[in-house]
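Handoff note, outgoing to incoming analyst
You'll be picking up this chain. Sequence as last confirmed:
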Amino acid sequence: MDIVVCVKHVPDTTEAEITVRDDGRGIRKEGLVFDISEADNYAVEEALLLKERFGGSITVLTVGSQEADETLRMCLAKGADQAVRLTDERFEGSDSYATARILAEAIRGMDYDLVLTGCMADDDASAQVGVTLAEMLGIPHAALVISIAVEDGTMKIHRELEGGLHEVLAIQLPALFTIQTGINEPRYASIFGIRQAMRKQIETLDLGALGLAEEAVGEAGSKTSLVRLFIPVVTAQATILEGSPEEVSSELVTIFKNEGVI
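Most recent structure output, in case you need it:
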C-alpha cells in the first residue's frame, strides 16, 4: 500500500506569548518553537501502522520553506520512505484552496493508494485542505476518521460526527482520509532513525516543476484572504458567587433574568 501523508510545520503556541506583526496579517515567529501539526502527527503514525501490516511505501509531503525540513526529517526518522517539500516564494499567501491545489499537482505525479492528512492544522484550524484536496484529485474521502480497518479489499472507517455520533463507511481505494487526534499513539523517533534521516535527501519542487501558473497560487489563486489578525481584548472578568447554596441560586436566577436568559 503506497501512502502519501500531507504534513504541516507549525509554531507551538500553547504556552508562548503571541504578538501580531505590524502588518496585522500574521504573528511574530521569532523565538517560537516549531513542530509537526498535532493531527498530522497522528496521520503519520496511522500510515506507519498500515505500512507495517500491508507493506508499501510512505511519502510525506509539505508546503513550506526550508525550515519545514525539520518536520519532514522527523517523519523520515519514524519510518517514512520519501519526503517532498513544495517550496516557492510565490506560494506565500495561499489559502486552504490554493494550498490544496499545490498539493494536488504534486500528488498527481505519484503512485498512491491512500492519502492521509490531519483533520486540521494547529495554526489556522480551517479543516479545509484535506477535503478540498480529495475533490481536486477526484477520489472519495472521509473526514475526522477515528479508526481504519481493511475488510474484503475495502477500507472500513469510523468517523466522528457531532453530538457524539459515529459514522461507519466502506470506501474503495484510492481515497483520502483526514485523521482525528487520538486515533492511535504516535511513536517517538529512535536515535538510529534520526541519524538515518539526516542522510536522506528531501526532494524540492517549485512552481515550475508542478506546472502551475503563477495566478493559481498565492493570494491570486486563493478564494479567501486574511484581512486582519488580532488578539481579542479582555472586556470582562468572571464573577464569583459566594454564600449559601440558596443565596447563590437566588443571585444566579437574578443574573439570568437581567441578561434575558430566562
